[in-house]
Design brief:
By secondary structure, the protein is α+β, with helices and mostly antiparallel strands. Among the domains are: 7-115, Tumour Suppressor Smad4, CATH 2.60.200.20; 245-305 and 321-388, no CATH class. It contains six helices and 34 strands. A hairpin with a 2-residue loop joins strand 7 (78-80) and strand 8 (83-84). Helix 2 (165-224) packs across helix 3 (231-238). The protein starts with 6 loop residues before the first strand and ends in a 6-residue tail after the last helix. This is FHA domain-containing protein. The chain crosses the membrane at residues 168-187.
């Protein structure tokens, strides 16, 4: 199996190398050393990543597909998926590794990743939770400088002692003059260049829009003539309308405006177990504010999803578990640490009093929705979720645009978000849920996490940020298939409904985590559904599900009083 794997891949999320990707020969490296030392395989910046030790740790390949992360007694420790490592721990491709609290973080991966190590797709009717999102490869987190290393400190002192105050002030004055002159020259010389670039961009955009319009006219003519439309034609006409979405969200206590953590405590063997509390609504995680947390994990997640343009002014439909993930089933628990402790009360210092033995199983908390939490610090409280960031990248580009949540649906897994970009070409929506039959051909487009990712090295033309950077290009995937059956709920407001509510069951096999929120087209190029879940395997068969587009169209209507 290892003969098919070509490279170790390190995708930097946070730190001086954020958004950069490093690759190492899989068969030529049995270990990757991590640190600020010049001898480190994965070397971190000695001036910026100051929480990293010179020889912080290493990743060791113990077998063809077996890996272990070792902490070299580093001062600030190593965290795997937000949990601190004690000595060493097994890791898998896709795990997030962070050197020191608030230090640089990266995703450990191998390329190509074997099928058995692919990230799990969000399942709808399982009793064991799985992750919906693949590891995030873009982050806007800023590294926090917590101190200066010994060598850096000595170098600064030595340099400053050799300067007189008079020379220092003279140098500073000269620098201001030089940079002021350069800034003026640069600004003056680039105005015309920028205007020329803007003009070229507008011309290219107009050409792209005209080509899309011509394609849509041609498709419409075929529809009117009753001619079939190929999968390639539908994909070509709609590629620019399908976007990749990057998300990161957190849960907050409203009154104190504090981020919330889920607390963990060690058992008799030193294993950290999650804490839970019994409420009138059932068992829920024992949450505390960040400033009161002793050992906890932040409630939230990062990941990717898909969406599609539904208006020329930048409105985009996606899943609720993408645009407002705190309003859906939570999968961010450290599942391997179950069972958990039930909190029986608070002591005089306000710390939780635990049951003698951990008894709360994963099945008892599976299905918990963060926005429905009722207790914080052992007391009734109101919580709300917030997107730390919500970014949209258009097909075959790498430029992210800030987006905002407009509204999540109250009745299905749909959300409406918006990006401030105009003159976009929207998809064509068609609500035909009542007439769709089993066996009809459909096409789903999106950005499944298991698909190979294209990257581009982009040279910087900014003199104040000259280093080239590596960016991921959003590469949409087209998945043709069929409707296997139409799953209907009993009535709109009935309390007795199917486990899915209204859904299309599909036979797709090329989708997965990250495809959530992608459009489902009929054979004539109309969007009739939104992909939202999948499950199964090669033995059981791959089954996917899509939401009827009527639930998305409801969010586009002008609100009216009931």
């Amino acid at each position: 199996m290892n003969a098919t794997v070509k490279q170790f891949v390190i995708r930097h999320l946070v730190g001086a190398k954020a958004n950069q990707v490093e690759e190492f020969d899989f068969n030529g490296h049995n270990e990757l050393t991590l640190g600020r030392s010049n001898d480190s395989d994965v070397q971190f910046d000695p001036e910026i990543d100051t929480v990293v030790s010179r020889e912080h740790g290493k990743i060791v390949k113990e077998g063809p597909l077996a890996f272990v992360l070792i902490d070299n007694n580093s001062r600030n420790g190593i965290f795997v998926n937000k949990i601190r490592v004690k000595g060493q721990t097994p890791i898998e491709p896709g795990d997030e590794i962070q050197l020191g609290n608030n230090g640089p973080a990266f995703i450990f991966d191998i390329d190509p990743r074997p099928a058995e190590l692919m990230p799990a797709t969000r399942l709808v009717e399982v009793v064991k939770p799985t992750n919906e999102f693949v590891p995030l490869e873009v982050s806007e987190s800023t590294p926090i400088k917590t101190g200066i290393g010994k060598q850096t400190f000595e170098r600064v002192i030595s340099t400053e002692r050799s300067k007189s105050r008079r020379t220092l002030w003279a140098a500073m004055a000269a620098a201001f003059v030089i940079f002021g002159s350069l800034g003026f020259v640069f600004w003056n010389s680039t105005r015309e260049e920028q205007a020329e670039l803007d003009a070229k961009y507008n011309q290219a955009l107009q050409k792209q829009q005209e080509e899309a319009r011509i394609q849509m006219v041609a498709l419409q003519e075929k529809v009117e003539q009753g001619k079939p439309i190929s999968t390639a034609a539908i994909a070509s006409a709609n590629t620019d309308k399908v976007v990749k979405i990057f998300i990161s969200w957190e849960l907050y206590e409203v009154q104190e405006n504090e981020e919330l953590y889920h607390e963990y405590r060690p058992d008799a063997q030193g294993m950290f177990r999650p804490l839970f509390v019994q409420t009138q609504n059932g068992i829920e995680p024992y949450l505390v504010t960040k400033k009161k947390s002793l050992v906890g994990l932040p409630v939230g997640s990062t990941g990717t999803g898909s969406g599609f343009v539904v208006s020329s002014d930048g409105q985009i439909l996606t899943n609720r578990h993408v645009g407002a993930a705190w309003k859906t089933r939570y999968s961010g628990f450290a599942w391997n640490n179950f069972p958990g402790f039930l909190v029986q009360g608070l002591d005089k210092t306000g710390q939780p009093v635990l049951a003698k033995e951990p008894t709360v199983g994963a099945e008892q908390i599976f299905g918990w929705v963060p926005s429905e939490a009722t207790m914080v610090d052992g007391r009734p409280a109101q919580v709300e979720g917030r997107n730390k960031y919500l970014k949209v990248v258009f097909a075959n580009t790498s430029q992210p645009y800030e987006a905002r949540l407009i509204t999540p649906s109250q009745s299905h897994d749909v959300a409406l978000i918006k990006v401030d970009v105009n003159n976009l070409a929207p998809v064509t929506l068609k609500d035909n849920y009542g007439s769709v039959k089993a066996g009809e051909e459909i096409i789903v487009m999106g950005y499944p996490g298991g698909a190979p990712q294209q990257r581009v090295v982009r040279k910087s033309n900014d003199p104040f940020k000259p280093n080239a950077e590596v960016f991921e290009v959003a590469s949409p995937v087209t998945s043709p298939g069929h409707v296997q059956q139409v799953v209907a709920s009993s009535t709109e407001f009935s309390t007795k409904q199917s486990g899915f509510g209204d859904s299309y069951q599909l036979d797709l096999n090329a989708t997965g985590g990250g495809n959530s929120g992608g459009p489902m087209f009929d054979e004539k190029g109309n969007v009739i559904g939104i992909y939202y879940a999948g499950g199964g395997d090669a033995r059981q068969g791959i089954i996917s599900f899509a939401i009827p587009i009527k639930y998305g169209m409801e969010l586009l209507k002008t609100p009216k009083s009931e």
